[in-house]
Design goal:
Elements lengths: L1 H8 L7 H66 L4 H28 L5 H66 L12 H4 L2 H27 L8 H19 L7 H17 L13 H47 L8 H46 L14 H100 L6 H39 L9 E4 H19 L6 E5 L6 E4 L1 H24 L4 H6 L3 E11 L2 E10 L6 H4 L19 H11 L3 E7 L3 E9 L1
Parallel strand pairs: 2-4
Antiparallel strand pairs: 1-3, 4-5, 5-7, 6-7
Length: 731
């Protein structure tokens, strides 16, 4: 027994519990199965023979008969399909074909599965013929469908020809009447006051024009009538004569067109004649595979060719049906012969199985008892009990005792896993302590990162406030310096106007003592001097408004400024006007159209006015610079004249749940910004302008200002078309 046990343990496979149990079960069930199989073999074979007759031969015969029925149904479908005149009739016929096709395919599949190998060749021939028959029917159906479609296309094309023929006839008849009236009376229109002399209106050119109109009227009617006539033909041989007549009429039309070459009707009539040409012979140099582009003659020829092919399909259909009927008859004869030979097979097996039944039953019982005692009771159950006792000891907390179980099956694997678990349990306490310390260090690191982030934000705010404060102070200083001499200019221009008025009054008092020429000259000088002073005062007032706007922009906020409730639309207008005036001062020839789309009843918004004004100034200024740059890149004056610079400013109130936002969008039709540059525009010191025109801080500071207001600034742009900045401020 021990040697047998060691034999199984030393097999090259892993002797697991599953393998052991399956092996024993396999032997036990196998022996029982063999014994039972031999006992019932004779009965099974008799039953098999009976089943072969009832379940194979009879169904084979039935299926063969059904093949003939389905083939007959498909035979009747072909003439019906050939005579179909509408899409509805074709669809009805297709339903019958699909139904018969599916039925025939199912029958052939069943017959192929159940038939004997000796009849496989016949069934294969039937299947090939059936597929050929179905493929031929599909070709016939496709051909009939194409013919109907082409006939429909032909009718559509002919209707267009009729319409165009009426149109060209209307034009030519009107032109003929006008030319006839002109040749007889000398008047081209009823509004003409004087008749053209006879020698002029009867010149060769007028006569040729009149003859050309008459010829075109005749030839266009011939062209359209020939196209309509050819569509009524019943034979393909009759197309060529009409085609030649059509080509001759087309040549005559083209010859007559030459007499109209210097008249307004030439282009319109030539287009109509060209359409009739295309309708007849198809589009010239067309790469389209559409049959409609080939013209009436080729389309009708294609229809006749397809009808000829349909007759060939009908003939092939009859041939396939004849062959299919022949193969079906061969199959039925073969099935009947097999039925007579089956009943002689089953008498030879019963006697041999009876002698083997008793011996195999005794062997099966003996081996089953041997497997149960050796493997199940002693080897498997005994080792499982040993493992269970050791596991109970470890569950009580005694992890120091090593666990060793012999073997290479699942029980041994479980013992090894428990040993690994014991070692990991000892290490777990040390690992828990390390994880606790690591967690505390991570928390400290997170706190330090938050502090560093806050310090960086504070530093950025301080730098931004310092820059904005410096810029505001500089603007205020410059504005004050300009405003003082500007006041002197405005005041003295007004004073000079008053002095001129007094001088004019004094001149009137001594007017009688002076010569008239001197008086006129003095008056002219006084007038020019007054106009010049008026211009000085007007431009001084304009400059004063700009300086006042700069002072309003730079006044107010410092590093510790406060928010104010501002009426947004007037505030935007002031900032936009200030940015535009600043651009015009630099480039007096610059001009742009501002399109404003302000939402009504927007109300007031709480902001830092100075900061938001800087943002608007920066964005509008950038738009003006972009438009100016686009204009400078135009190579021709035509491009500059066709280009209309536009800056659109829109405001909208947006509701998102419990929060309301005011959206301000500034869009220009400048050169746009590439995607690569869009990712960098908000970076500090990044600029696409020359170093003497830009610092790269404008958009960066504007973005910081929007973040200070808890708002956002986004960019949308398409290269060569537009750039759009969208500001969102919480209301």
């Amino acid at each position: 027994m021990r040697s047998l046990k060691h034999l199984f343990l030393n097999l090259p496979i892993k002797w697991t519990i599953g393998v052991q149990m399956y092996f024993g079960l396999f032997i036990f069930v196998g022996l029982i199965f063999i014994a039972s199989f031999l006992g019932w073999k004779s009965l099974i074979e008799m039953n098999g023979i009976q089943r072969a007759i009832t379940e194979e031969r009879i169904p084979e015969l039935s299926l063969a008969i059904k093949i003939g029925q389905e083939s007959a149904a498909l035979t009747e479908v072909a003439p019906r399909l050939f005579s179909s005149q509408t899409e509805k009739e074709i669809n009805k016929t297709k339903i019958i074909i699909n139904k018969s096709s599916n039925g025939l395919s199912d029958i052939l599949n069943k017959l192929k599965q159940t038939t004997h190998n000796s009849k496989k060749g016949t069934v294969g021939n039937i299947q090939i013929l059936s597929q050929s028959l179905l493929e031929n029917l599909k070709n016939l159906e496709r051909s009939v469908s194409n013919t109907l479609i082409w006939k429909k296309d032909l009718n559509i094309l002919l209707s267009k020809v009729t319409k165009e023929s009426r149109e060209v006839g209307r034009i030519l008849i009107s032109a003929i009447d006008n030319q006839t009236f002109f040749l007889h009376t000398g008047f081209k229109t009823l509004k003409q006051k004087k008749a053209v002399p006879v020698n002029i209106r009867s010149n060769p050119e007028s006569i040729s024009y009149y003859r050309g109109l008459l010829s075109l009227d005749t030839q266009s009617n011939i062209l359209s009538n020939l196209l309509l006539q050819v569509s009524q033909l019943s034979k393909a041989d009759l197309i060529q004569p009409i085609k030649e007549r059509f080509r001759a009429a087309l040549r005559n039309s083209q010859h007559a067109l030459k007499f109209l070459s210097n008249h307004n009707l030439y282009k319109k009539i030539s287009e109509k004649i060209y359409f009739l040409d295309q309708s007849g012979f198809g589009k010239k140099n067309s790469k389209s595979f559409d049959i409609k582009d080939q013209g009436v003659f080729k389309l009708l020829s294609k229809i006749f060719q397809e009808q000829k092919q349909q007759k060939k399909y009908l003939e092939k259909n009859r041939h396939f049906v004849t062959l299919l009927s022949k193969q079906t008859g061969i199959l039925i004869t073969s099935i009947e012969l097999d039925g007579h030979n089956i009943s002689k097979v089953f008498e030879k097996t019963i006697y041999n199985n009876q002698n083997q039944l008793l011996i195999l039953n005794i062997i099966t019982i003996f081996l089953a008892l041997l497997i149960g005692i050796l493997f199940v009771k002693k080897y498997l159950i005994g080792r499982i009990k040993t493992l269970s006792k050791t596991m109970l000891t470890m569950s009580n907390g005694d992890l120091k005792i090593p666990l060793v179980v012999s073997g290479s099956d699942e029980i041994a694997d479980m013992a090894k896993s428990l040993e690994v678990f014991r070692k990991y349990a000892i290490e777990a306490q040390r690992i828990n302590l390390v994880e606790k310390l690591a967690k505390e260090i991570q928390e400290k690191n997170d706190q330090l990162e938050d502090i560093i982030k806050k310090l960086k934000n504070a530093q950025k705010q301080m730098v931004m406030q310092e820059k904005l404060a410096s810029l505001g102070g500089l603007v205020a200083g410059v504005a004050h310096e300009i405003k003082n001499p500007l006041n002197f200019i405005n005041n003295f221009s007004l004073l000079s106007k008053d002095i001129i008025k007094e001088l004019v009054e004094e001149l009137k008092s001594i007017e009688s003592t002076l010569e008239k020429e001197k008086i006129s000259f003095i008056n002219l000088l006084m007038k020019d001097l007054g106009e010049n002073l008026e211009k000085i005062y007007s431009h001084g007032q304009r400059t004063d408004k700009i300086v006042t706007g700069m002072l309003q922009h730079s006044s107010g906020q410092s590093a510790n400024d406060k928010k104010e409730d501002i009426d947004l639309h007037p505030f935007l207008d002031r900032s936009i006007n200030l940015a535009y005036k600043g651009k015009v001062v630099v480039n007096s020839g610059f001009d742009v159209e501002f399109k404003k789309d302000y939402e009504d009843n927007l109300g007031k918004i709480k902001i830092y006015p100075q900061d938001i004004s800087r943002v608007i100034l920066n964005l509008v200024g950038n738009s003006c610079d972009a438009i100016e740059d686009k204009i400078q890149k135009f190579s021709t004056e035509e491009e500059k004249n066709n280009y209309k610079p536009i800056i659109e400013i829109k405001t909208r109130l947006i509701n998102k749940g419990d929060k309301n936002f005011i959206e301000i969008s500034i869009k220009d039709n400048g050169p746009g910004i590439s995607k690569e540059i869009q990712q960098k525009v908000f970076d500090p010191f990044f600029t696409t302008k020359p170093t003497d025109k830009g610092t790269g801080l404008g958009l960066s500071l504007s973005n910081d200002i929007m973040q200070k207001h808890s708002g956002t600034m986004t960019l949308e742009s398409k290269l060569g078309e537009f750039t759009k900045f969208i500001l969102k401020l919480p209301k």
